[in-house]
């Protein structure tokens, strides 16, 4: 099949590359000339493990190309995927659909034959039906089908998620659209991955409901971690005990400094607004949003307590900035809340992250960048573990402690343990919902 992919952001690029690896002919469209030049040169504008190699292979096989010519890309396309951003609208939390409707209108104006228009972007319930109305308004002469096909990709594991999905959700209104989407995803069906076909509204809701539920799990275990600190329980053991229950499962039960990224913050906010607009408030989702922000603020208090209640002139090394490892994504990362407060209260902040520099340099001014975590902790008063990159999972803690002016650790991802840190020479340690040892404990 010939596929046109509108948008080469995270979802569009990963989806386009993976579809080409299925054997389809894929043309990815973007208006950003700088990004297009990078892509045509075989380089990816985002960091996603394995994406550059997969992209190069399919470009070499002439199954994958990049252009800014929308008319050329859609001329013979069987399907046109819309994969543009839907960020939170400033001021009210609604999803901003201007990019989606703008892309649909531009596509409709250049189509030369009926096509299946697939909305890959995350959109509120009812959006796909509005897209169908827009298509009819712009091109009443073309009988185009609209499909809702939400993505469920985890950053850092997106290729594996696309190639080995838990399910593929397709919202359709016609037999023709259903058959086309079956052909698009035929390679997965041959390997018995489930294709769930629903109506448009159900497909849209599945995406929001899934993300809100996962965000709820993250926030729930973070609240349990706070209670564990008050009661002496260990949140890692609690989460492990919960995860063995097949009704709960172990995923998304790792306590930390709050969720971030491209999906959970904007999708929970948008879903809450959908509930409010339909006079059916989602109180659990609204609470999840509120608690997640509170968790980030509590992390700041942890660091302040670790530093004897004051940050002025303290040197703090922060290891990890992205919202999760194996990505360069800084969107709504806890670091964007925590680091500016440290700087604002007079701390000298040093940061280390394997991939964040391109995104974070402008977002986090007044910090000093280091490539090496040991160099960053030389003479430091505290080290903060903020993202659980593999590079930070097996540090020589004894060497690090000896380098520091005050060997103190805020382990906000529970990479290590209090006993391990103290045995290595750290004088103070605070984690998430686990045994801690702070200066005033002596």
UniProtKB/TrEMBL annotation:
| Family listed | Belongs to the UDP-glucose/GDP-mannose dehydrogenase family.
Q: Which residues bind NAD(+)?
A: 30, 35, 86, 122, 155, 266, 331
Q: Which GO terms describe its molecular function?
A: NAD binding; UDP-glucose 6-dehydrogenase activity
Q: Do the record's keywords include Chloroplast?
A: no
Q: Which SUPFAM superfamilies match?
A: 6-phosphogluconate dehydrogenase C-terminal domain-like, NAD(P)-binding Rossmann-fold domains, UDP-glucose/GDP-mannose dehydrogenase C-terminal domain
Q: Which residues form the UDP-glucose/GDP-mannose dehydrogenase C-terminal domain?
A: 317-418
Give UniProt keywords alphabetically. Answer: NAD, Oxidoreductase
Q: What is its EC number?
A: 1.1.1.22
Q: What is this protein called?
A: UDP-glucose 6-dehydrogenase
Question: Which InterPro entries does this entry report, sorted A to Z?
Answer: 6-PGluconate_DH-like_C_sf (IPR008927), NAD(P)-bd_dom_sf (IPR036291), UDP-Glc/GDP-Man (IPR017476), UDP-Glc/GDP-Man_DH_C (IPR014027), UDP-Glc/GDP-Man_DH_C_sf (IPR036220), UDP-Glc/GDP-Man_DH_dimer (IPR014026), UDP-Glc/GDP-Man_DH_N (IPR001732), UDPglc_DH_bac (IPR028357)
> Is Repeat there in the keyword field?
no
Question: Which catalytic residues are annotated?
Answer: 263 (nucleophile)
According to its UniProt entry, the protein's GO biological process terms are:
polysaccharide biosynthetic process
Q: What class of enzyme is it?
A: oxidoreductase
Question: Could you tell me which pathway this protein works in?
Answer: Nucleotide-sugar biosynthesis; UDP-alpha-D-glucuronate biosynthesis; UDP-alpha-D-glucuronate from UDP-alpha-D-glucose: step 1/1
* Catalytic activities: UDP-alpha-D-glucose + 2 NAD(+) + H2O = UDP-alpha-D-glucuronate + 2 NADH + 3 H(+)
Chain sites annotated for binding substrate: 152-155, 207, 252-256, 260, 324
């Amino acid at each position: 099949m010939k596929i046109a992919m509108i948008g080469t952001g995270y979802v569009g690029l990963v989806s386009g590359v993976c579809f080409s690896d299925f054997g389809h002919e894929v043309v990815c469209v973007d208006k950003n000339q700088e990004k297009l030049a990078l892509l045509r040169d075989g380089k990816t504008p985002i960091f996603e493990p394995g994406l550059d190699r997969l992209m190069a292979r399919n470009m070499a096989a002439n199954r994958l190309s990049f252009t800014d010519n929308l008319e050329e890309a859609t001329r013979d396309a069987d399907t046109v995927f819309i994969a543009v951003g839907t960020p939170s609208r400033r001021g009210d939390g609604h999803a901003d659909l201007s990019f989606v409707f703008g892309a649909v209108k531009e596509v409709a104006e250049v189509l030369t034959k009926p096509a299946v228009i697939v909305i890959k972007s995350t959109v509120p319930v009812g959006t796909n039906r509005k897209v169908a109305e827009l298509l009819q308004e712009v091109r009443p002469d073309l009988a185009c089908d609209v499909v809702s096909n939400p993505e469920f990709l985890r950053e850092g594991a997106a290729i594996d998620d696309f190639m080995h999905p838990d399910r593929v959700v397709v919202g359709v209104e016609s037999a023709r659209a259903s058959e086309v989407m079956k052909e698009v995803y035929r390679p997965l069906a041959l390997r018995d991955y489930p294709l769930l076909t629903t109506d448009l509204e159900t497909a849209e809701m599945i995406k929001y409901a899934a993300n809100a539920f996962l965000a709820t799990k993250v926030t729930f275990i973070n609240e349990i971690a706070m209670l564990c600190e008050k009661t002496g329980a260990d949140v890692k053991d609690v989460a492990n005990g919960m995860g063995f229950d097949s009704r709960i499962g172990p995923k998304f039960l790792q306590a930390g400094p709050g969720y971030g990224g491209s999906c959970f913050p904007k999708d929970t906010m948008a879903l809450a607004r959908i509930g409010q607009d339909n006079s059916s408030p989602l109180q659990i989702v609204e609470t999840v949003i509120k608690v997640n922000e509170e968790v980030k603020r509590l992390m700041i208090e942890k660091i302040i307590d670790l530093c004897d209640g004051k940050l002025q002139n303290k040197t703090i090394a922060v290891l990890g900035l992205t919202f999760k490892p194996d990505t360069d994504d800084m969107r709504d990362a806890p670091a964007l809340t925590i680091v500016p407060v440290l700087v604002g209260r007079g701390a000298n902040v040093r940061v280390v992250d394997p991939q964040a520099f391109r995104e974070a340099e402008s977002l986090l001014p007044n910090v000093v960048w280091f490539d090496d975590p040991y160099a960053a902790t030389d003479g430091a008063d505290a080290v903060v573990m903020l993202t659980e990159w593999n590079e930070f999972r097996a540090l020589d803690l004894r060497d690090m402690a000896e380098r520091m002016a005050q060997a103190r650790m805020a382990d906000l991802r529970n990479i290590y343990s209090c006993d391990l840190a103290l045995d290595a020479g750290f004088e103070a340690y605070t984690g998430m919902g686990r045994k801690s040892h702070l200066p005033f404990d002596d």
